[in-house]
Amino acid sequence: MILALVEHERGLPAEASLEALTLARELASVEGTDLDAAAFGGDGSALADELGTYGVDTLHHVDHDDLDGYAPEAWGESLGQLVEEIDAGTVVVPSTDRGHEVAAHAGVTLDAPMATNCVAVEVDDAGAYELERHRWGGSLLEHARLTGDRKVISAAEHEFPVTPADEATAPTVTEFTPSLEADHLRVRVDRVEASDEEGIPLGEARVVVGGGRGVGGAEEYDQLEELADLLGGTVGASRAAINDGWRPHDDQIGQTGAKISPDIYIACGISGAVQHMVGCKGAETILAINTDPEAAIIQKADWAVVGDLHEVVPELNDALRDSA
Amino acid sequence: MNVLACIKRVPNTGAKIVLTDDNQRIDASNLGFTMSPHEECVIEEAIQQADAHGGSAHVLTLGPEEATEQLRTGLAMQADEASLLETDGSEWGPRATADAIANVVREMAEDGTEFDLLLLGNESADAANYQVGVRVARELGLPCVTGIKSLEVEGDTAIAGREIAGGEEIYEIDLPAVITVKEGINEPRYASMRAKMRARNMEIDRREPVGTAGAGSLEKVRLETPETDDSAAEILGEGPEAVPEIVEILESEVSVV
Ligand SMILES: Cc1cc2nc3c(=O)[nH]c(=O)nc-3n(C[C@H](O)[C@H](O)[C@H](O)COP(=O)(O)OP(=O)(O)OC[C@H]3O[C@@H](n4cnc5c(N)ncnc54)[C@H](O)[C@@H]3O)c2cc1C
Ligand SMILES: Nc1ncnc2c1ncn2[C@@H]1O[C@H](COP(=O)(O)O)[C@@H](O)[C@H]1O
């Protein structure tokens, strides 16, 4: 049996979880076994209705008197106990912060290996997984072999387009009550503080104007801010610009920063290092403005302007203001 | 308060990744080495917390002899001590690595050095297994929270924040604890030339790592550079003369104007 962890908001499954469910269903069909889902909190039956579309046979709704809100170790321990109870061979989780955290704990409970950010999985005759997974934020692929009676994997984000099952199911809902000890519950969300950030978050912006070391200073970002405003977008930056103290870390795009997926990414004075570019893989199109025709970003962009951003961007702003 | 900072040496890849002929690793013959930005923040946080609460900051890595370079980066930043769990350069998986780290922490405790806080990166730069921290914590029976971007220690409690959509989730956990951090939690300092010179001569504690992986396994078969669309960009022009073309693209091709 394949068990997928589903994160949900009041019965509505999160996108990344549906992607993971899509991979889990592929695996269940290859292995000729059931596809089950596990979810914490909320209303199990509302969620089950949604999950029927994706071919889930049974939804295990995990609940416990002491489980109130997110608690990583308790969730991971519960997931592990559930796997043993229903004898699932594989757990599939989304590649989210919580997905990875819960899965790592479940891996400990199950004494199982865990392969993160998988993009393809095949099953061999012996039941081992021949898989491909992301390394270096997705700039490298690793072919690996995952073995064991219990396996934990995460589905890389945006790699498994959400597809409904050929035949919808009407999942059975089963309540599962883990046996938890005080230690499992010692780490839990104490409170949530809303952020006072204004503007469009980088991850959601339709237009992103990125500035790198070529921008040259904190004040020079004003022209990029103006361009972003004119296009209804947001400004981002490379790590080099942040290290130089020109922008806050929240603006960083890349492997250790934000992942963006705008209609267009306008990269100004950015060389195109792999760790930056993995953050822009979701961009529909890229326009690069760079003085160096040999810069790597020119290879990776759709359009490029060879020139000084300090000349190009102000002129572009003027033109856009005139046409508005 | 004694703080342990765990870091991993990785090649500093640039605009293109080249693999060795056997596709087993990155060809690093023309590359320098570094660590994940998360881990630079791990070192900085360890030093700040040890300074603020009185105690020492200890950097640790499991890796080849050459990884002393990354330990010295930590010492130059003003960490107090460094340990190398020396390997032959072959890659250790996350479970064996976690076991080896947990074993050393126990060993050091027996020798009188107890850590109140163990800091690791949220994920390593190269492998991104997202699990060494959790596995170390569970093996040592310590509480653990991952992906932390703000941290304050008050008495025996760590107040740790994790970014979520629209805000921050706050955890209050008892020390000793394991916390994995993300870049942005602090601004790692630059080491002065003098500090770098001093670090060159500092002693590094060396040990042989002992770690096992447990049931089942994840084995690397080979690496591959994914296919990318490297068809060169259409050059719209040089300098401001390209502006009308840019406007045209913004209007008709991407329809954002
Ligand atoms: C593990 C790891 C993780 C990392 N994570 C990230 C990450 O998340 N995000 C990230 O961005 N980086 C990350 N990096 C760093 C990355 O490798 C690069 O160092 C960084 O992206 C370089 O930033 P840059 O392109 O702004 O600077 P540079 O490489 O210095 O490039 C500056 C560019 O500006 C151009 N230029 C100069 N002047 C002008 C001008 N007047 N007009 C137009 N163009 C001009 C130059 O031709 C050059 O191409 C990471 C590194 C490692 C090792
Ligand atoms: N070889 C190693 N030596 C020391 N610490 C490590 C090593 N490998 C991983 N870590 C730590 O564990 C974190 C998470 O690694 P991973 O689980 O591989 O993503 C890293 O950011 C490091 O802080």
What does this structure look like?
Chain A: Residues 2-189 form the Electron transfer flavoprotein alpha/beta-subunit N-terminal domain. Chain A: Keywords: Electron transport, FAD, Flavoprotein, Transport. Chain A: This is Electron transfer flavoprotein alpha subunit apoprotein. Chain A: One of its GO terms (molecular function) is flavin adenine dinucleotide binding. Chain A has 324 residues and is an alpha/beta fold. Helices cover 29% and strands 27% of the residues of chain A. Chain A contains 9 helices and 17 strands. In chain A, the strands form 3 sheets. Chain A has a 9-stranded mixed beta sheet with strand order 9-8-7-10-6-1-4-5-11, sandwiched between helices. In chain A, strands 14-13-15-16-17 form a 5-stranded parallel beta sheet. In chain A, helix 8 (296-300) links the parallel strand 16 and strand 17. The longest helix of chain A has 17 residues, at 15-31. Chain A is elongated and about 65 Å long. Chain B is α/β, with parallel strands linked by helices and 257 residues long. Chain B has one domain: Rossmann fold. Chain B is 28% helix and 28% strand. Chain B has a 7-stranded parallel beta sheet with strand order 7-11-6-1-4-5-12, sandwiched between helices. The interface between A and B is large, with 97 and 85 residues. The structure holds flavin-adenine dinucleotide and adenosine monophosphate. Flavin-adenine dinucleotide (FAD) sits between chains A (212-214, 238-241, 252-257, 269-271, 273, 275-276, 279, 289-292, 295, 308-310) and B (12, 34, 36-37, 125).
